[in-house]
Q: What sequence folds into this?
């Protein structure tokens, strides 16, 4: 297993609890192997956590490649049906899921039974796998996919992917992306979309009003935040505007970049380390604690949901948030839709420059479609995955449902009011296929933010234990350091002790 994560198979589904400083849910959820599937599963992390929405910058021609034309023709001739368990793809509510499934049938000839939980996706996944429910397609995060592949729950797709004229076309999916998701030399899933990166997003209109330059160092970021507070570009009254808001410690990586600290696991001399839990991270925690003590950092950051952070940014109460590149476009679109004459302008910028001149921000982990070994219709399922990467498939995954989310008049595409609300995201807002051109256009600031991702995004190595074991510990001690409950150096020392005692670092 990746990063030394261990997986156990047991006779009955059970949840175990391990002792930590504070009681937490089981760090290793185990499911029995039963009937045709009934998988033995050790899942951790949230499969769809922090899912992005919004559209993508779109290059090149929208014409179908010859191999894509063949895929469209083949799936229409194939017909049949598939059952899909989806975390992100589909409608925005149960009623629209029905319309989405009908649109799939209209476009492909395949009948889609779409199971799209509105919450607690992991719990639904675990329960259905344990019960041996037969799905043709299941959406998984990379680490979960590796776990299920090891336990013989998934169908290896290497031969099919490599022999697919469409999926092996480098303009559809770059070869290096496939290499990123191999496990035991095999491929077990097909990408749902291209993941973006998380970065500082700043009120660029305030920057220009105050004549400020883009920050590069932690001192620069601090000085900009002080200017936002004291010079009042928001008109809130001096001292009322915050410099920074985050949702807990998600995502402070752009500031840890100042010390050259990487997210996730990093192997050093054969040992697993977590740079966020090392002495190298202490200066950044001290800097964040300084922001908090001076009222520049949202005093509610520790309990914020991402929606709280977004609301502050959209209501002129904070100058910086750290969030997905795609939300740069969405922030601008929301404000311009609400207030056509608004001066509001969000901009995605790089993180702090590190000691060797490098900048490190976090890339989102891959989400993939997989075919279980007990899938009733695996051939149809794979044909759908190919179709999902054609222009008609991408159009459905971005714009949505023809006549519901958008209309086409004399060849011109226009979003409906509902489509505008949905932000051109029905599961694939950021496609890999470089032959796709969004006929609606791209949202303001998005392309520039995606260039930041392309230049500086780093894909962290995590593993199955990360989401339920590592992240809660990181959050617990880093928040104490920022709040001033622990000196940052002491917080890191205690964090290391906890991680090592639980076998999470070497």
A:
């Amino acid at each position: 297993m990746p990063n030394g994560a261990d997986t156990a198979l047991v006779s009955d589904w059970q949840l175990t609890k391990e002792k930590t400083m504070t009681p937490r849910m089981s760090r290793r959820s185990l499911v029995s192997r039963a009937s045709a599937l009934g998988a033995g599963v050790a899942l951790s992390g949230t499969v769809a956590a922090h899912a992005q929405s919004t559209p993508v910058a779109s290059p090149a021609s929208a014409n179908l490649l010859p191999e894509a034309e063949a895929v469209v023709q083949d799936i229409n001739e194939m017909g049949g049906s598939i059952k899909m368990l989806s975390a992100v793809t589909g409608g925005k509510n149960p009623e629209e899921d029905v319309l989405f499934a009908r649109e799939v049938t209209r476009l492909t000839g395949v009948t889609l039974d779409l199971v799209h939980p509105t919450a607690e996706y992991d719990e639904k996944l675990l329960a259905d796998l344990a019960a041996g429910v037969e799905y043709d397609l299941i959406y998984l995060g990379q680490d979960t996919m590796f776990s299920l592949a090891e336990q013989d729950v998934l169908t290896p797709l290497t031969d099919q992917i490599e022999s697919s004229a469409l999926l092996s076309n480098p303009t559809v999916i770059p070869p290096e992306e496939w290499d990123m998701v191999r496990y035991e030399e095999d491929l077990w899933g097909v990408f749902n979309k291209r993941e973006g990166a998380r970065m500082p997003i700043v009120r660029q209109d305030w920057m220009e009003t105050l004549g400020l330059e883009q920050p590069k160092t932690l001192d620069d970021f601090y000085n900009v935040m002080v200017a936002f507070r004291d010079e009042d570009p928001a008109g809130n009254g001096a001292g009322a505007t915050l410099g920074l808001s985050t949702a807990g410690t998600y995502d402070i990586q752009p500031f840890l970049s100042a010390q050259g600290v990487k997210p996730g696991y990093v192997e050093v001399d054969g040992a697993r380390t977590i740079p966020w839990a090392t002495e190298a991270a202490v200066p950044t925690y001290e800097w964040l604690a300084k922001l908090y003590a001076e009222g520049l950092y949202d005093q509610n950051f520790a309990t914020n949901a991402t929606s709280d952070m977004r609301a502050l940014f959209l209501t002129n109460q904070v100058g910086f948030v750290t969030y997905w590149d795609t939300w740069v476009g969405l922030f601008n679109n929301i404000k311009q839709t609400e207030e056509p004459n608004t001066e509001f302008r969000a901009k995605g910028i790089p993180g702090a420059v590190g000691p060797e001149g490098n900048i490190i921000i976090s890339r989102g982990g891959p989400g993939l479609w997989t075919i279980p070994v007990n899938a009733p219709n695996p051939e149809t399922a794979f044909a759908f995955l190919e179709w999902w990467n054609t222009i008609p498939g991408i159009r459905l995954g971005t714009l949505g449902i023809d006549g519901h989310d958008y209309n086409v008049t004399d060849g011109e595409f226009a979003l409906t009011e509902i489509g505008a609300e949905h932000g051109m995201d029905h599961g694939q807002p950021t496609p890999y296929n470089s032959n796709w051109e969004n006929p609606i256009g791209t949202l303001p600031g998005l392309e520039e933010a995606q260039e930041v991702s392309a230049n500086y995004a780093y894909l962290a190595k995590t593993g199955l234990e990360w989401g339920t074991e590592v992240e809660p510990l990181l959050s617990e001690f880093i928040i104490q350091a920022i709040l001033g409950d622990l000196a940052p150096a002491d917080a890191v020392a205690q964090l290391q002790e906890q991680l090592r005692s639980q076998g999470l670092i070497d």
